[in-house]
């Protein structure tokens, strides 16, 4: 898929529509979540973890937006904030032009936005049969039991499981891949418009993972879905997404067209992540990520650019000024790096080959 329009996190241009202004499905503006711990010093001072720190982005109708970053970067917290599973400290969530919690009630929003979690077993009630699991939501929302059961059988077939064999089973009788198909079917039972997939395939075997990814692609077409796809596996993200958002320590480091970000990354952190992708090619050994130092303590994040203690491109100004997200040179992504628009482009850092 080729994208021609400049991409802004707040753009209302659908890149698949070559410039036709359309309303984004989900708009996030200035989202913040700080977690406060109980005082742990003699003076009772609280420590604050800035899990998500003032991020703004949109998800266009019908697209898959990937979210990547190291553990603790705020990916899953962002997903939970979107679902209002945890309350944001600040920021607006606008769903199809309506402010969530004001113009559109939370119950209706949660029906239209469903989530699939990583742990397929913990996500299911071990005491409910598969049929009851899938039909539970529609029944709670007032649907007749007979119709809800018909829908659950139909959805079982749509996710590739024979209803006559699986409807009466319990979660412990299924494999991990089958359970994750049930979780997807249960999410679809609400007839949602947006699915948040939080590491939904990360716990599966590779062969099963490929089947579930293909299933998700088919369901997206069949049901007209939009995906927010969170994963630490960059190969999977590259296969699935239209656009990608790279997060670092609660902020957006880079966001833009998936092919562009993967082929010509701008932010040094994105480059480091991509450089560390495992290689299957014996002639191209996996490289060591060009990062220096350990991830900083989120309770006491670095001043200026939060990436500066690990960035091999850092200069003095990087520790003083926090970079804003700005359009990159190729106009297909945005990055938060003070040096991105210099006349001399940032050279790709020297890569050390593992084992040398
Ligand atoms: Fe590195 Fe400086 Fe850019 Fe931050 S602003 S990513 S420290 S070069």
Structural class: alpha/beta
Radius of gyration: 22 Å
Which CATH C-level class of the largest domain is it?
A: Alpha Beta
Write the CATH homologous superfamily of the largest domain: P-loop containing nucleotide triphosphate hydrolases
Q: Mean of residue pLDDT?
A: 85
Let me know the number of strands. Answer: 14
Major sheet details: 8 strands, mixed
How much strand?
Answer: 15-25%
Q: What is the CA–CA distance across the termini?
A: 38 Å
| Number of spatially distinct domains | 2
Global morphology: globular
CATH architecture of the largest domain: 3-Layer(aba) Sandwich
Notes on the protein architecture:
With 356 residues, the chain is α/β, with parallel strands linked by helices. It folds into two domains: 26-241, Rossmann fold (3-Layer(aba) Sandwich); 244-279 and 301-356, no CATH class. The protein is built from ten helices and 14 strands. It has helices spanning 75-82, 106-112, 130-140, 145-158, 163-166, 176-188, 206-223, 234-240, 258-263, 268-275; strands at residues 26-36, 48-59, 64-68, 90-95, 98-99, 113-116, 194-198, 226-230, 243-248, 251-257, 287-288, 326-327, 333-335, 352-353. The longest helix has 18 residues, at 206-223. It is globular, with a radius of gyration of 22 Å. The relative contact order is 0.13. Mean pLDDT is 85; it is low at 1-7, 12-20 and 343-356. The structure holds iron/sulfur cluster. Residues 267-268, 305, 307-308, 311, 313-314, 318, 323, 337-339 line the site of iron/sulfur cluster.
